[in-house]
Amino acid sequence: GVEALLALQDVESPTERRRRSVRRAGRLLDELDDIKIALLGGDLSQVQLERLGRTIREQRAATEDPKLEALLDEIETRAAVELAKLEIATRAA
Asked: Which member of 5, 9, 24, 70 has the greatest number of CB atoms within 10 A?
């Protein structure tokens, strides 16, 4: 009875998984944009890099949409590359 209801509540619908994945991708893009603005202004903070790293490491739910998955993969890859470049640059400075 109750256990079955609780188990059903934990099951996400494909629409909800898609929505969460898209929100996460939006956060990654927003964080990359904030970093770009900070770099142009000369005030990039370690907090921004840490926030980007945390978002990259978040578990992404599968969306069952191959085109969306490919786009999300590209966003994650771009974010990871930019984070690596920034970490190398901050260590060298």
From this structure: 24
